[in-house]
Amino acid sequence: MTDLSAADVTDLFRTVSLRIGEARAALGALDGAIGDGDHGNSMAEGFAALTRALVSATREGKGAGELFPIAAESFLDAVGATTGPLYASAFLSAGQLFSGMDSIPAARIPELVTAFHDGIARRGKAGVGDKTMLDAWRPAARAVAAAGPDPLAALAAAEAAASEGRDATRAMVAALGRAARLGSRTLGHIDPGAASAVIILQGLREGLTARLARGAS
Amino acid sequence: MAVKPESGVLAEMPMRFGDDALLWAAWLYYEDGLTQSDIAQKMGLSRASVNTWLADARARGLVNIEIQPEHFRAVSVARGLKDHFGLHDCLVIPSEGDGKPLIERLGQAGAMVLKRLVRSGDTLAVTWGRSVLALASALDHPGLADIRVVQATGSTTARIAWTPEACASRLASALGARWIPLAVPAIVSSPAMRAMLMEEPVLAEQLQVLSEANRIIMGISSMRPESTIHSSGFLEGVDRHAHYQDAVGSLLGRFISARGELVSGPVNDRTIGLDLDGLRRVPQKIAVAGGIDKVAAILAALRGGLIDVLVTDAATARGVLTADGWQESSRRPAPAATVPTATRSHGKKLINEARNAVDESLAGALMAHEALISLVPGTSRAVMAKHGPRPGKVGIVIGGGAGHEPGFWGYVGQGLADAAVVGNIFAAPPPGPILAASRAVDGGAGLLYIFGNFSGDVMNFEMAREMAEAGGIPVRQIITTDDIASSEPDSRGSRRGVAGNVFVFRIAGAAADLGASLEACEAVTRRAAQRVYTMGLALEPARLPDTGRPGYELGADEMEIGVGVHGEPGVERQQLVSADDAADLLLDRILSEMAPSRGDRVAVLVNSLGGTPAMELYILTRRIRQRLTAHGITVSHMLVGPYYTSLDMAGVSLSVLHLDDELAALMDHPCDAPALMSKGGRA
User: Fold this and answer.
1) How far is A105 from chain B (nearest CA, A)?
2) Chain A neighbors of B467, CB-CB under 8 A
């Protein structure tokens, strides 16, 4: 099966960054309804900075596994806020998984979903139904655990589960973060963090689909 | 209700109108657009009577939705639920009323509903819980014949008052009916035990009655720790996260997913009573449930087709509908939208590129105040005092998102903070620059971090603290929670930290300047943070530089109470009031929590959130001072101006620090920073 080099992993993140960038305004609008409206900007700036950092790291000859701590640091420095530490933890957790690896087998890419979830959960400590990004990441990670060996099918299952989780946040009352102060006024609104989680998963699947279509390198 | 119907036809009146036939008539006429003859026919009245009723409705102001909006809104939401989920009927009661608890009022409403639905010869199944017991307790309806009331499940723990037996027996006696218990526990120890019990003839007979039920009255439980399903002992000894993490609610002791499907787990094969398939076969399923925490559970049950008649309250009903994407339809006739909103749809701003706004503004501040502050070397958004650090002095590091100017760099200087770190607009700074600032101002006596209670700030400052401590710098932190609008007094820990920070910075800076140890600095700063109270209101929301658009909309005559210092909406919205009323509104909330005695001293900050001019601030200040004087409170320190802003938000916040001798002395200590300068003594 195909292995993903550092350049390939950078491409994956580039696709994610592209899709997050396209959703910048939409995510901002979701956040404006129940938060302060900065989620679209934070995510877009964060992934843009991350992609820039990965591009130069790849150029310097870093291995695929070495990219994740760089992703964490660049994202965190660009974003701060809540999103920064949460996704930085996600990327660090993925880094432990692939540490020292020059390339990553395509079959192991869905493990990113699990690692992202674990990192976010450790840092954020949100519970089920707290109306946070974990309400999308948690079902996604479980879908990956239940999926078969085909990485694209696993990512598709993760994406579907995350979408369902995202939609379910509509019926939740925020328990953490800035939206928590709005209490029941958050009902009926999708959590922006759950929405961007789905976009990340879509980007990963799109990126991996494109990479596998090119065949072994 | 004075009007009595002329005949018995009102039995057909939809339940959502309660007992109020007049409201129904008014609704049919004004909302549904029926003619008076149509209404006469539908209600079984003469046309002349309808005419009189409608006149009466007008005279009572019932049809004027401005006067009776709550009733009509509840009716409209009830109709929304009925249409959206295909219910037989739905009764929505106001969420707040006459001081009685919601459960009790839901019980009364449920009793009224049941009275209209129950018929002689019925077999009524009944579950358990607070709402069901309240219904049974509120009901008194003897006189029907041959009714059987059967427990829908076996028995639960007797630690609760609302057991299945209590609910069923109470209901049976209210109806003069026969009570059929299920003479087993609801949960038994094993599937094998369940199989054995099911063979018992007595139980089989009772279960046969249950299968003949033509109506069921049930409560719905959320999955919250305090919910009925937990207190009933169903989840004892079960790892909920391993088995029931998809469950959003429960009914009949069964767990359901967001789509209303059964979530199977270890308890399932050990439960005795009606299951979800059995429930679906009951011709009329009446649910009584309310409270915002139950929205997800009720929505799931509705989606799963497990409810035919719903009794709930308006806030919950609206929550369920909005959660499912429903929007309240515009009222008819639609008033012409001629009133412009107060919100300028697109703010004009003097910026260059939006993405450079934070850095360019900070660069200007550094130039304007070059004698006092400079960048921490190697950083772009960490600012430190020019005169520091001082060996042996505790370093004060503050920070938060940009957009609060002169927060946070304005409070860096002698007698105040040693360093401030800002992030993007309304977003916490990352740990990197906080750490750099920490190293730059460490004078060997440790550092005190002070920041507002926002999850981003907490995470980033805590990460920085871990790194600083790993490098041998002891760090203590004060997370401020002065915004009393953001949650109730008993959960002060979850409140936001806002403009009261100015006083907290001042106290910490003075203590550190006077040479207090890290422990002493932390203690007195914590006391200041606990004794400062802030309450804000907005007339217009803030607009972000990159979109120019407000985060939320406010009508021309509205104000938002309890806003924070970001774009986030407040906690409630009300009609715009005069300056004195606004001042009273802010001050009354603060005084009721602060509970000062006559003769106490306070420090007061009347703060502009960015768009409110000095003229208005001083009008408010006048009233606040008059009120405090009348209350016997001395204002020993007073600040008026844009000290802690929220971009261009029009609005104010009032912060009051309840002084004691030590805090008053520290407030008298001199300070010299860009936004705050005092030669000492009373400001």
Assistant:
1) 31
2) none
pTM above 0.90, yes or no: no
Active site residues of B: 404, 566
Dihedrals phi, psi of B607, to nearest 5 degrees: -110, 135
For B563, the 3-state DSSP assignment is: coil
Higher pLDDT, residue B618 or A55: B618
Instruction: Give residue B620's region: left, alpha or beta (phi > 0; psi -120 to 50).
Output: alpha
pLDDT single digits (tens) B397-456: 999 999 999 999 999 999 999 999 999 988 899 999 999 999 999 999 999 999 999 888
Task: Work out the minimum CA distance from B326 to partner chain A, whole angstroms.
Answer: 9
Please report, for residues B174, B434, B506, B517, the alpha-carbon distance to residue B512 in angstroms, rounded to integers and kept in the order given: 70, 19, 10, 7
Q: How far is CA B345 from CA B348, B410, B549, in A?
A: 10, 30, 6
Q: For A82, which of B459, B564, B568 is closest by C-beta distance?
A: B459
Asked whether residue B630 carries a pLDDT value surpassing 80, the answer given is yes
pLDDT at B343: 47
For residue B177, what is the DSSP state?
A: -
Residue in chain A closest to B402 (alpha carbons) equals A81
Rounded distance, CA A81 to CA B649, Å?
A: 21
| Interchain contact A80–B (C-beta under 8 A) | yes
Q: Within chain B, what is the greatest distance between any pair of CA atoms?
A: 94
Residue type, B519: E
Is residue A21 within 8 angstroms of chain B, CB to CB?
no
Assess contact for A2 and A212: CB atoms under 8 A. Answer: yes
pLDDT of B68 > 70? The answer is no
- pLDDT band, very low/low/confident/very high, at B682 (cuts 50, 70, 90): low
Report the SS3 class of residue B608: strand
- pLDDT, tens only, B98-132: 678 889 989 988 998 898 889 888 999 999 999 99
- At B283, the amino acid letter reads P
- Complex ipTM more than 0.85, yes or no: no
Which amino acid makes up residue A8? D
Contact B274, B215 (CB under 8 A): no
Of A150, A91, A87, give the one whose Cα is nearest residue A115. Answer: A91
Name the residue facing B459 among A78, A123, A129 (closest C-beta). Answer: A123
Kindly give, in sequence order, each residue whose CB lies less than 8 Å from that of residue B187, ignoring residues fewer than 6 positions away: B154, B156, B233, B234, B253, B267, B270, B271, B272
User: How does DSSP assign B198-242, residue by residue?
Assistant: HT-HHHHHHHHHHHT-SEEEE--B-SSTTSHHHHTTTTTT--HHH
Q: Please, which residues have CB within 8 angstroms of residue B153's CB and are 6 or more apart in sequence?
A: B127, B128, B164, B182, B186, B252, B253, B271, B272, B273, B274
Average pLDDT score over residue span A161-173 = 91
| Contact between residue A54 and residue A71 where contact means Cβ atoms under 8 Å apart | yes
- Can the peptide bond before residue B431 be classed as cis, meaning omega within 30 degrees of 0? no
**CB–CB of A36 and B426 under 8 A?**
yes
Distance CA B683, CA B676 (A): 10
Residue B280 token pair: 């679906």
Q: Could you tell me which residues are beta bridge partners of residue B386? A: none
The stretch B536-549 carries a mean pLDDT of: 84
Q: Which chain B positions have a beta carbon within 8 Å of A87's beta carbon?
A: none
Q: Please judge whether A32 and B494 are an interchain contact, meaning their C-beta atoms are less than 8 angstroms apart.
A: no
d(CA A61, CA A102): 10
| A184 contacts B315? CB cut-off 8 A | yes
Q: Which of A187, A190, A191 to mutate to test the interface with B (most CBs of B within 10 A)?
A: A187
Residue of A nearest to B561 (CA): A182
Q: Are B461 and B477 in contact (CB under 8 A)?
A: yes
Sign of the CA dihedral B640, B645, B649, B653? negative
CA-CA distance, B526 to B482, in Å (whole number)?
Answer: 11
B70-92 pLDDT, tens digit each: 555 577 788 888 877 878 888 88
Find chain B residues with C-beta within 8 A of A172's C-beta: 296
Across the interface, whether the CB atoms of A36 and B551 are under 8 A apart is answered: yes
